[in-house]
Amino acid sequence: MTKKERYKYVIEWFQQNMPNAETELHYTNPYELLVAVILSAQCTDKRVNIVTPDLFRRFPEPAILAKATFEDVEPYIRSVTFANNKTRHLIGMANMLMDTYGGEVPDTIEELVRLPGVGRKTANVIVSVVFDKPGMAVDTHVFRVSARIGLTTNARTPLQTEQQLVANIPQELLAIAHHWIILHGRYICVARKPKCNECGLRPACKYYKTDMRYVYEAQ
């Protein structure tokens, strides 16, 4: 199977089997999603969704968060990973939103990555989910699954993975493709023991053909 054929198979399978894929983070506006994505770095969406309701009630807009102290914010997010750093990032992000962007979340990658706590992955999530722009956010799931299936070749960094995916997925599908791959990695193509026997992408998957086929055929 050529790479073009592999992409065609994978895209068509997801379109048929996961037509409404979307983020599992809970939010009601761009500010809330930005906060949630910052908190989700190296942390589960489930954990983030547990802490954000109280956090958003206490700090419902960037103007209020910008005036908060470390001691005000940290107790609300203490159970997430790297809570101390993320507390500083949230306060710094809110201050920059107020000082530079009039309290509004910017809609470009270039502006978003200037915000404290916002890397390219987070910026891509915001522009694609909130502003419906083409963007491919690469987290650990996307990085791992893309390589396993064979959508990427010798991609050693998230940026290289992003570039290869963007080059091969139609622009209008990039936003949902991000969610397809994340959800597939979260529930099927898991890190330690992928559930190949439940996976509809087996015919197109390089990892299954080279590493797992004989394991499952022998069972």
From TrEMBL:
<keyword id="KW-0408">Iron</keyword>
<dbReference type="InterPro" id="IPR000445">
    <property type="entry name" value="HhH_motif"/>
</dbReference>
<feature type="binding site">
    <location>
        <position position="196"/>
    </location>
    <ligand>
        <name>[4Fe-4S] cluster</name>
    </ligand>
</feature>
<keyword id="KW-0234">DNA repair</keyword>
<keyword id="KW-0378">Hydrolase</keyword>
<dbReference type="GO" id="GO:0004519">
    <property type="term" value="F:endonuclease activity"/>
</dbReference>
<keyword id="KW-0540">Nuclease</keyword>
<comment type="function">
    <text>DNA repair enzyme that has both DNA N-glycosylase activity and AP-lyase activity. The DNA N-glycosylase activity releases various damaged pyrimidines from DNA by cleaving the N-glycosidic bond, leaving an AP (apurinic/apyrimidinic) site. The AP-lyase activity cleaves the phosphodiester bond 3' to the AP site by a beta-elimination, leaving a 3'-terminal unsaturated sugar and a product with a terminal 5'-phosphate.</text>
</comment>
<feature type="binding site">
    <location>
        <position position="189"/>
    </location>
    <ligand>
        <name>[4Fe-4S] cluster</name>
    </ligand>
</feature>
<keyword id="KW-0255">Endonuclease</keyword>
<dbReference type="InterPro" id="IPR004035">
    <property type="entry name" value="Endouclease-III_FeS-bd_BS"/>
</dbReference>
<dbReference type="InterPro" id="IPR011257">
    <property type="entry name" value="DNA_glycosylase"/>
</dbReference>
<keyword id="KW-0456">Lyase</keyword>
<dbReference type="Pfam" id="PF00633">
    <property type="entry name" value="HHH"/>
</dbReference>
<dbReference type="InterPro" id="IPR003651">
    <property type="entry name" value="Endonuclease3_FeS-loop_motif"/>
</dbReference>
<dbReference type="InterPro" id="IPR023170">
    <property type="entry name" value="HhH_base_excis_C"/>
</dbReference>
<comment type="similarity">
    <text>Belongs to the Nth/MutY family.</text>
</comment>
<feature type="binding site">
    <location>
        <position position="205"/>
    </location>
    <ligand>
        <name>[4Fe-4S] cluster</name>
    </ligand>
</feature>
<dbReference type="InterPro" id="IPR005759">
    <property type="entry name" value="Nth"/>
</dbReference>
<keyword id="KW-0326">Glycosidase</keyword>
<feature type="binding site">
    <location>
        <position position="199"/>
    </location>
    <ligand>
        <name>[4Fe-4S] cluster</name>
    </ligand>
</feature>
<dbReference type="InterPro" id="IPR003265">
    <property type="entry name" value="HhH-GPD_domain"/>
</dbReference>
<keyword id="KW-0004">4Fe-4S</keyword>
<dbReference type="InterPro" id="IPR004036">
    <property type="entry name" value="Endonuclease-III-like_CS2"/>
</dbReference>
<feature type="domain" description="HhH-GPD">
    <location>
        <begin position="39"/>
        <end position="187"/>
    </location>
</feature>
<keyword id="KW-0479">Metal-binding</keyword>
<keyword id="KW-0238">DNA-binding</keyword>
<protein>
    <recommendedName>
        <fullName>Endonuclease III</fullName>
        <ecNumber>4.2.99.18</ecNumber>
    </recommendedName>
</protein>
<keyword id="KW-0227">DNA damage</keyword>
<keyword id="KW-0411">Iron-sulfur</keyword>
<dbReference type="Pfam" id="PF00730">
    <property type="entry name" value="HhH-GPD"/>
</dbReference>
